[in-house]
Amino acid sequence: MPDTQSTAALADPLLDADLHHLWHGALQHQGLAQQPPMRMEAADGCYVWDETGRRYLDAMAGLWCVNIGYGRKAVADAVYAQMQQMCFYPLTQSHAPGAALAKRVADLLPEPLNRVFFSNSGSEAVEMALKIARQAAKRMHPGQNRYKIIARHRSYHGSTFAGISAGGQHLRKQSFEPLVPGFLHVAPPDTLRCGFCGKEAACTLACADEFERMIRMEGPETVAAIIVEPAIGGGGVFPSPAGYLESLRRICDRYGVLLIFDEVITGFGRTGKLFGFQHSTAVPDLAVLAKGLTSGYLPLGATVASEAVFAAFLSDREDKQQAKFVSLSTFGGHPASCAAALANLDILLGEKLTENSAAVGAVLAEKLRAIRDPRIGQIRAVGLLAGIELVQAGTIEPLAEAEVVAIQKRVRQANVIIGRNADTVAGFGNVLTISPPLTLRVEQAGEIVDAIAGALLA
Ligand code: PLP
To answer: I want to staple 455 with a disulfide (CB 3.0 to 4.6 A). Which of 34, 38, 42, 410 is the partner?
Structure first.
């Protein structure tokens, strides 16, 4: 039996309900009564308030997602209006907010990304991308058995079976094995401990060449796609080095392999460009969107395909039933979620929050880099996405996880919520993460940095 009894729980019926009935993801319930999760009850702008009225600066935007900040009435109004007009209809047929949002998203992305398939979350949107890629690859290369997907260690692509199979974080996989066959992994660009060109004068992008090596070793006629986050987020914030994504694009073109960019975190302004891949000239065949698409006001995911990928599913011949993309979702592209996304995009674009992300992100990075502490091994930052890799002083050995957790807790005691790359790769849970609402102001960036600097000093 979990030890759910505590004096506090008895005095607080919601805490009691939580401890007895709610199953939290990624939390050990044994002992939870002694250290219950924070219960947030209100939110506005970059701040959240717990049930005691204590205010925190939410430098994780919930879970990397509340890009426009909390408390936007315009989004709530749009959802309310849609719920009154028509609460639900599936996208096996059509509805106005779904069609309008598909066009809006396609217009925001460069050519040839043009076809939008809606789902309910980032994980599902990844799942759709992987299914689309496998089916498209088979249809684009008749007679070949293209099913393998190449991804990277340390990356995260969601919590479903295919998502954790694509992901490169063994701590999220090992309890659920065996996983989906056909997923292969290469090393990510880790400039702190690069095993490829770390000793050269400059980056040679040898880690990108690993994809080509893998394709050749496996046989190109077996490989369907490559999937990467333009900047690894939850795995510890690893932005792509200059030229890396272009290199992947060239490799994919050379071998007829589809390129998937998982933009679930990096999309919608997070990195200081509207989409993370726009730091490069590379355009993927499939883009995966969620989080900032609605800023978390309602759940929604989207998988956007190029016209060439979409065309592979068209047929007026006898194979037309098998040619189409057979994948159903009751709630995917829910009208209220699409209405929320449209209102969210009005705010994100109208208030130039991508530009704010670039400008305030640069200040945040500069202030973080000014902290003097020998345990800071590397600060990796792009827009309002930052990771602080903590190491044992004078080495590149990760700082012990207990110490990193203690630092993160002290930041919270200073009323600032930051994240950590927990449950990813054993021994490497040593990166503090920052991903605040894109409305963050310079003085709030200062609040975050002061809390972190104070926590490191203590
Ligand atoms: N892909 C990436 C890059 C993510 O960071 C996440 C979630 O953090 C997902 C996919 C899965 O999204 P969701 O949690 O909405 O299923």
So the answer is: 410
